[in-house]
Fold each of these.
Amino acid sequence: MDAELVRERAEARTKQSRRHTAVTALGPLTALAGLIWALVQPYRITLLEPDAHSFWYLAVQPPLLVILAGAIFHFWVVPGLLADLEEVEGRRKR
Amino acid sequence: MKPPPEVVHWMFAVGFLFLGLCLLAEAIVGREVWRRRSWRAYLWPSVAFLMGILMWPVMVFFTSSAIHMLAHGVWAQAMMVAGAAQLALVRGKLQNQLWNLTVPFALAVSGAAFLIHEQNPWLFSRAAFLHHALGWTALVGAVITLGLCARPRSPVFNAGFALVFLAFATLLFCDRNVAPIFGHLSPLAGTR
């Protein structure tokens, strides 16, 4: 019986850590995609050549926006979500 | 100071990307955890409603023909209906879960609008290819959201719903005003 409980708790911990890891990885993976895009197509970073572009192309640079979206998600959405996830998972374990 | 059409598409793409990330996180942690903070529960419906509103200036300033204007107008209304219904459901003003069907309806209308107003074939130009791809993605999204209405807690349908938005973002980021697709660009596509 004890061994069964230990196994169930270990499974619960594994599930929590998988969800935790997946949510934590979303933002950095998105930012990494933006970084790779910037390296593959450096001409999309118009800041490198500011005189050659008009206002809108300097204001909206897709690879940088992808990095920004990943960063905002990671620093603004993820911390609260992980806190709530840990609370719910902790309550289920008890 | 009017932004070029491709820049408008990229700005919409950022919104779709952020929304897709949030929906994917919701699919991972589950609706119960996601809705523990009210702003998160309201996020998807408000963004859908906002995108419907933002479609109106796109219709006014960026459409060059009657069919473009009608497509964007119908699209704006469908997105606003879906967003408003979802807001009312989250708030509790609407109780009947059948209102969730406004989401597949909006996606089906969006997909049809894309496919009907793009009158060139797939390989005419990159914009034509993306219109077709986005249209079919929206129709696939309509099928996924129908499944989501039937099984709201299904992780597969929830993840599929999020992936539809990430696909929208990717396709919109690929948009250019005039560019070839797979090496092909019609001489009629406006290169000269």
Amino acid sequence: MRFLNKTNIDFISKQKIAGFLSITLIVAGIASLIIKGGPLLSIDFTGGTVAQIKFEKPVELGHLRETLSDYGFEGAEIVEFGSPDEVLIKTQFSGSSSEISEQLTLALGKTFTLRRVESVGPKIGKELQNDALKAIGLALLLILIYITFRFDRYYALGSVMALIHDVLITLGVFSLLDYEINLSIIAAFLTIVGYSLNDTIVVFDRIRENIPKYMKKTLNDVVNISLNETLNRTVITSLTTMMVVVILFLWGGKVINLFAFALIIGVFVGTYSSLFVASPVMVYFEKRSKKPFRK
Amino acid sequence: MFKDIRYRWALIAVVLIASSYLIWPTYKLYSLSEAEKSELGVIVMKELRDGAINLGLDLQGGMYVLLETDIPTLVEKIANKKTEELRDAIQEADQRSINNQTDFFEEFLTVANNRELRLFRNYNNLATTRDNESVVQELKIQRDNAIASALEIIRNRIDEFGVSEPTIQKYGANRIIVELAGVQDSDRARNLIQRTASLEFTLVLNEQWEQTLNKIDTYLLSDSSVLNIDLDSPIEKEELAEPETSGSAEDIFMEENILSEPTFDMSTPAEILKEKPFSGYLRAVPRGVGVLAKEYHIVKEILENSEVRRKIPRGGKFLWSNKFETAQDEMGNFIEFRQLYFVSSDPEISGGMIREPQAKLGTAGTDVSGQWVVNLSMSPEGTKRWSRFTGANINRQVAIVLDDKVFMAPVIRDKIPSGQTQVTGFADVNEAKDMANVLRAGELPAPVEIIEERTVGPSLGSDSIKSGGKAMFFGLIAVMIFMIIYYKGAGLLATLALMLNLIMVMAVLAGIGATLTLPGIAGLILTIGMAVDANVIIFERIREELDLGKTVRAAIDSGYERAFITILDANVTTLIAAFVLAWVGSGPIQGFAITLSTGIICSMFTAIFVTRTVFMFFSDRKPLKSLSI
């Protein structure tokens, strides 16, 4: 069985359309980020408290909001979580979480079970934020060094541009949909980085192999040949990864729902970027360099 | 040596046997019933647990708490001469360390030097040389001691709490991580950990109630802006809004006691609040004065108002009891309330003076026979003070205060000249033991606060396991079916490699004593998707080589050889991301990174080495004409 037989798609010539598409998506995301004053950070980074509670029967959110605001939860964010009888209460309620559960019991009686309470102090939030940025920065730097070492710096540029592209788009989608960034989403971002690179490297590897093989062809042609040769693999791996990620999204439970969602976007965008972003960028810089592999 | 297929099979066999050996405790542990577990005994169970993959708190329920010592307060506490200059310097150093995310002591030294403070003057109780540097060095040692004893105290308390496998560990220089797996009564655990500030015995000033209440009422009547609460519509709380009748407890407020007013609403009626905007909320309860649970936050707000606080007579302060209680009134209605105390703000005994508190069953033959009591003794200084204090205050109450919450307020029966004290009035063994814990911890050398807390209920944990397991099962099946349809025989081989991969990952996780968390399961599931990538790369390559007209054997050989470099490069980059996560990330993220990187590394073995061995096995026996791929 074979999905794609001997394809001959001219990927490089599509870079204008692809570039337009990518830039539109990125600009939309960044615009949303600017309008909303940065990404929507979870309490992991801002400090605060989130309580997940399950009621015996579905509740009306408006009513719940009113009741709770009478009990010191003014301005608390209350959203349904997965099913109509389960809600997430996000609050800046200052106090220990035992006080929160006390207060909730006072407000609601014994009609609910407290499924999860997480409260993060503002100081720790700032630290986690630093750690997350450090992790992403460090990962990018190390990857850049590795690729420069294994290929050359233009390949490194191309692949890092591709992953910045992927992370920006995923971040933008999260901002547009008003989804929160928490610690596990950061992990998802780094996974996207790893996955997108994996994809890109397979293509780059083939380009590296093909350059001495097709001495008479231009770099554009070699890149196109390589992309087509690896297209089957790109599609199939994306497909198997997408299958498990979608399954994780559907059945993995509410807690990792957003994590799985980030991965779905990431796998999709990562596949796209290794075809339409990484290689064109590499070609662009390689052609302008003083010591190119091939003009 | 790996050209010889026998060695290859041998290596695969070794890996399989080692994996099975490592997984065995995990399999055993989670297949045992509760009865079988208790039959095996503590030691065998501990061995099993140590060898098995442990479930994270998010999967089995429990609580995670990150505690931090308040270093600036500690540094101030240690000083035997507390000057304004010192306080200012400590404050500035604290601010700078928060802003610059630096070490407090470094900043403290800089600030002290900049201000030309001679720290030795404030800390001549420390055995150091006179320069600032060595004083700060000594303070650091004091900090370490403080954390060490805080750890011991928390450990001691947790042990008594009876959690099977608690994690209590130092994290960084001044933090403590506490993990209590499977803790259901998280409130009790939380209180046990959090009970860290100062412990005091202080006199209850019942005789000052009236005067204090009058002052606050008068003030509130004159300035209604404090009460931004709509008095006309008391907040409803259904299960408490039951018919109410006369009070039963002794009436300490004379005719004002609103419990004597028959009413159908438990909330304090607005007419009373118009006259007595504060004391109207207070009610007589079995052991003193209480506030209805539903009105608690109103009263709390009033008491926290800075103007109101000024009206409170010097030398006294309001303190809440440590928990809400329920009591039945004469008509059998349950009221839920929290007790309020008015106590001396000048405590008589501090925790450091208390020695060897112990929960015990009252001695037979005495009037506390069969009841749980707490015995304690006092330090020499404490004994002197205690003797004088108890002698002067017979039949008055002394409040046992921890973290500004009153745990109990026993009545002083007699003068206690020896320091040997017995506290009575506990409902059960837990109450007595917890009280002994409170007293034993006494005064933690350093104030500790909870800066991060995550509690997961057991039901959520088991839901997560179920859904994680389901996702894993479906993911595995989906990928397997796809691979077999797409690559036929070779696909079947890849799925076998995939299963071997999962077994290996589990074995490694058990071997390194890792904890499986929900993000860890997500990492495993992602591994399922990504581990087949190596096989996809190889199989596609072999197909290409076959298309070029190579023989089966040659196609296999060059397919594997060419694909190897690609797979290596591709996996190394993913591994870099995973390693950084494992290194910088904490808790759940680490779990994710560890399973993902283990999965990738194992997949290099299963997807390349194992599948190739099988290919070799078939193509060595007889030259293959075609390949099922």
